[in-house]
Amino acid sequence: ASLSVRPDIVVGYSLGEYAALHVAGIISASEAIFLVGKSAKILQARCQVGSHKMLAVRASVKQIEQITFKIVCINRPKEIVFSGPVAEISALVPILKANGYKCYTLDVAFAFHSAQTDPMLDKF
Fold first, then answer.
1. Collapsing DSSP states into helix, strand and coil, what is residue 118?
2. Would the pLDDT of 115 be above 60?
3. Structural domains counted in the chain
4. Who contacts 104 (Cβ-Cβ below 8 Å, separation ≥6)?
5. Residue 124 resides in a domain
6. Residue 28: strand, helix, or coil
7. DSSP output for 42-98
8. What residue numbers bound the domain in which 18 lies?
9. Is there a single domain that holds both residue 59 and residue 23?
């Protein structure tokens, strides 16, 4: 708004939803920050650190469609993210690497968009 730019549409995913709500004029910046903080507190109080992992893979969805694993994010056409229990993600890494895919575990305390965060849901 300060640059006199008003988008026709805004889209947000995950934490980006709060930014989209703010840009769309639905919530204020302070409300967005409050909601992010509230969400973080619920996450820390209800979810177990270290039970799940996130794994970024340099591949398109089409390239790895034979892998029956939950894709939680498509960052770019050839970069996807898996999320799941530590043992399952750890078992997936050598399979992907053996098939020539570069992959790396994300250094996050919680595997967002996985069952690890389900205990938060009843608070929303």
1. helix
2. yes
3. 2
4. 55, 56
5. no
6. coil
7. HHHHHS-TTSEEEEEESS-TTTTTTS-S-EEEEEETTEEEEEEEHHHHHHHHHHHHH
8. 1-46
9. no
pLDDT single digits (tens) 26-57: 999 999 999 999 999 988 898 889 899 999 99
Is the domain of 59 the same as that of 32? no
| pLDDT in the model for residue 87 | 94
What is this structure's pTM? 0.78
User: Is 81:105 a contact under the CB 8 Å cutoff?
Assistant: no
The whole-chain average pLDDT of the chain stands at 89
First-to-final CA distance of the chain: 30
Q: In the sheet that 71-76 helps form, which strands lie side by side, from edge to edge?
A: 71-76, 79-85, 52-57, 103-105
Calculated CA dihedral for residues 15, 96, 91, 65, nearest 10 degrees: 70
